[in-house]
Amino acid sequence: MRYLTAGDSHGPGLVVIVDGVPAGVPLEPAFIERELARRRAGYGRSERMAVEREEVQVWGGLDRGLTTGAPLGILIPNRAGPRVAGPEAYRIPRPGHADLAGFQKYSPADLRPVQERASARETAARCAAGAVARRLLEEVGVRVFSMVTGIGAVAVEVPRPEGTDPDWEDLASRAEASPVRCPWPEAASLMQEQIALARAEGDTLGGTFLVVAAGLPPGLGSYTQADRRLDGRLAGAVMSIPAIKGVEVGLGFAAASLPGSRVHDPILPGLARPTNHAGGLEGGVTNGQPLLVRAAMKPIPTLPGGLPSVDLVSGEATRAPAQRADVCAVPAAAVVAEAAVAWELARALLERYGGDRLQDIRAGMGR
Length: 367
Ligand SMILES: Cc1cc2nc3c(=O)[nH]c(=O)nc-3n(C[C@H](O)[C@H](O)[C@H](O)COP(=O)(O)O)c2cc1C
What we know:
The strands form five sheets. The chain has a five-stranded antiparallel beta sheet. 42% of the residues are buried. It is built from ten helices and 15 strands. Helix content is 32%, strand content 19%. It starts with a strand and ends with a helix. The protein has one domain: Chorismate synthase, AroC fold. By secondary structure, it is α+β, with helices and mostly antiparallel strands. Helix 1 crosses helix 5 and helix 1 runs antiparallel to helix 9. A hairpin with a 5-residue loop joins strand 1 and strand 2.
């Protein structure tokens, strides 16, 4: 499977072509819309989120509610309308955004084309592609969830499966009901307070989140070549989401400071694993345990007060212009990461079980 996206943040909309989807996967446009709505949600987003109403059109690739094996063309109209910022918004690069990098790379007349495409609006198209992958995974009993584990200075202890696994489905449904996608109510309300405070102070926040995939068969991915390792593919997919600056699998960075006896998951008769510090991957291959991928997002680069910058026309020191922006988008980034993880898992699934028809994949998996 492969996909490509096109479209601008304030143009007519986004388009994504999803190619290589097996035939026979039940898929409704409403399912894709639901995933886009999940991405739009979350406390701390900009007022644009109240304006957008993703109603997708699917061109081709579907017949009577089932995928046909042909490419799907998914169109997502923008409702935000044209940009309202004055011309100075396109002369002064925002520190931490892609403005200066895009100016140095493509020499645009002003920063507008950079901002149109570097905007995280593009991740709506990724979520649409991810929704197709998710539908396929659901058909074979694989479910992908996410939960926010930190916002600003508020961080929760990540559940480390010792003995019994946490009830991921229960945590996921509680995350779904939380305005900050955090299933632990005390931490969730502290996170909301942090966001409200940052908003009042004209600042922005980042945070961390966990993506979990349950129901995976062992044997997805391979250690035989670098580019077939599923850990590397997942890390690349999640790191490619704007503002993601760190990705870890299982214990991740915490494993570096622990002795091996406390890190590696014992293998018991029946090939049972009493712990899941590896986060479901050994040798870049799934081991049948839940997949645990955690990521860190930096704070939003657009600050209401503007950070120190330079006017690219005059060369004078100034401040970056105020623009409509999220205060915190960690809950939304977690949903985008679900899509990225679902996409890579679906690809790995097709590599192992064949990619023409859902029924063949099911038969190969015995599901
Ligand atoms: C879901 C989501 C929403 C975002 N919203 C904003 C925003 O409103 N304003 C902003 O300046 N950056 C926002 N960002 C972050 C920028 O897109 C990102 O920092 C920028 O593209 C530069 O990429 P980099 O941070 O990976 O270097 C958002 C990111 C995500 C994933």
